[in-house]
# Entry
Amino acid sequence: MPHTARKKKQHPQKKRIQVEAEDGWTTITFTGLGGSHSHGTRAPQGRTRLAPAEIPDGYSIDALKKDYMRHDETWKSSQCSSELTALFGQRVIKGQGRTLRRIDNCVCLGLGSIVDPFSRRFAHFQLAALQQVLSILDDSDGSHMSKRVAQDPAFNHIDAEFLETQDFTVLQNPEAFEHINDSTFLYAPHCEWSFLLPALRGKPTPPLVLCNSLDPLVSGPLSATVPIEQLETARDITQKNRNCARFPRFEPFESAFNDLSIYWSGNDDPAV
# Structure
């Protein structure tokens, strides 16, 4: 008796849809089983307004705190955390002098939603690393950052509530850029050049910047692929912040910090 082929049940696959926003940001939306989810990422100009990330059903601020605590413990126990502490203690702070004392505010851009399931793990580790650096900077001169602001169109009300418990004020685009000056620690992990560099044009160069490595843009083949204004801004960051180090490898989740570099000005560099 011949066998009849049985059709396998097809499950709809999640599709990744990129929706660009008019304010220079992009939302990545996943559709398929369970509806759609989105989180913010960084990209050039677009046409539609980016909405805050969706909150999973039943997910609360208490659940977020537990998730973050677990990721924070993973971060603190990592070799990467120890290497980052050594990097700042032995190179950044030691070589900063007067410039370090002028860093009195932090601007965090493009962290991504710490609630959204698709960006949560990235954002938690990146926030844990940021808090460690801020603690190191505070301890170096016994002071406290007078202002900490964060901006990402993907932030929802739980993101904002949690970040407030971490001493951050959440601002709407483009308010955070108004706080960037020559006393700023600019933290922009994986923030696209095409969004970050145009926004920095004409502003004082922050003396401490953590962002996507600018080397391929400034001295590599990519220099011919971007507008001259963005290239000039990138060169300005690397020329005024002559010291540079790659972010250490984070083995538990390498993609959270891959291709990031730290740029800073030392006490023997010209005034910014």
Observations:
- The two ends are 85 Å apart (CA to CA).
